[in-house]
Records
---
Amino acid sequence: MPEIVLKKPIYDKDAEQLQKCFTQGVIELEDDNNGRRHAIVSKPRLDMCSREALRYPELKDRIELNKIRDHFIFSIESA
């Protein structure tokens, strides 16, 4: 499962740029008390392991992209 860590807050135009780098729904923009929009990681499971954000110098130092290798999804059936 992908893990997206925002190491520093990302606001306004940079937040919009970050949102465009990922699949729709992965990054959401929220308004804060000062009227600025900031990025939050909403649904990391939707990410297709895109490294697009690392191409932008203004973003690459503010985010960390990892994979959680021991994350499993399964169901147990019992009678």
---
Amino acid sequence: MAKIYVIKLETHFDHKEQKARIGTRSAAEAIDAAVDRKVQIISMSWTIKQPDSNSVEKEKFDSAVRRAVKAGILLFCSAADKGLHQDNDSPAASNPTKMFKIGAAKPNGNVWDWVPNIRHLDFIIPGYEVAENASLDDDSSQNFQPQTGSSVATALGAGLAGLVICCVQLASIHTQMSRQKGHPDTPSSLTLDDLRHVKNHENMKAALRTIGTSPDSDNKFIEVWRLFGKATKDMAGKDKEQQLGVIVALAYKFRAY
């Protein structure tokens, strides 16, 4: 079961742009707090203006990001949603090669109009008028307004990475259980080493691409239904052991390293 640790950031009102802004120092402290909690994924559904070069705030923020990277944490952050204007905001600008920079996509797989140049993004994920999923008898969902933006897409991207990790983790547990019963490993057997490997930035990027991407989006739009849609159908009506078998087969596809 996934555990979510929510950190509230300090904001201030930018009178020039007439909008709330996140404080750089608060953002750095939030990343440090997440590292201290030994999290596996940090979802940063926000952006901050790039701090002035050589400033104390920039060093504090960059140091927090470096610490998270060193700890092997997967980092997901939002595009700035400025349209085609230059997007050099943080967190992405702090360490571009170790961040998953996510932009919002429309349901048809096209990038949302306010997302910056798609070439500068790692992936685009549905983030246009996303509705809350709720049970039919949950009255609270009736007051929920659909949300749009790369911040929404970033949260979904982080959740997708968490799902990939959970699949590999269950597959590694299945291997351990089979070994305890005296069964030999099979070519598709995954181990704790595989679980460790999939948490690596480049390996996770490869795993997400394995799910399936749209060529029309420069292979940036992840078509989650390609793998997970079939797996969901295959698990329907099966017992737990059979369902675990489906997950093991699914997890093996993420072994792209």
---
Amino acid sequence: MLKESGRNQLIITGVYAHIGCMTTATDAFMRDIKPFMVADALADFSRDEHLMSLKYVAGRSGRVVMTEELLPAPVPASKAALREVILPLLDESDEPFDDDNLIDYGLDSVRMMALAARWRKVHGDIDFVMLAKNPTIDAWWKLLSREVK
């Protein structure tokens, strides 16, 4: 059914991690499907069995991830929330106006690249160049407040 729909990845959650979930991951791997076991969305009889299943899959047949890794990185819900994300990244003690160049306030390229990578999970077209062309809170809010397609 996955192949018919053009998919090759399987996210696995549930109970009995060391029985059904681990077996499902291994079976998927044998069928050229990439299994992802969600460690914090699995249950088992004991901690040891839970960890054994995660270790087995991670070492042999799939990838073990946390729920947070599968969810899109949140973008700020408002311009004020964007400011709260940006201000701790600045070197200056003065707060910039929304149309001030954030590079003038100490925002470096490494932090800008990290923001681009985070926001790209929601808006796939956002990249470092796009942020660097107009590094202001106003410009970035315009990018982030667009409707997600």
---
Amino acid sequence: MAAPYTVLHSDLILTLPKLVALHIAKMIDIEIYSPPIFIPNYQLNIYWHKLNASKTSHHSWLSQLVSQL
């Protein structure tokens, strides 16, 4: 993910899910603040084309990877 490195040496801000921000903060020196407004929860969905439905091992791998976030 390039966005945290892009804002690292600038006056820009970046909004990320808290768990992602905490993970990135272990690798680079960033400051984490709560947003000044309420940001509702979100739902992450994974979709793939039916032509790729036979590639279940790839889909399982991706689903497991994303669910760990």
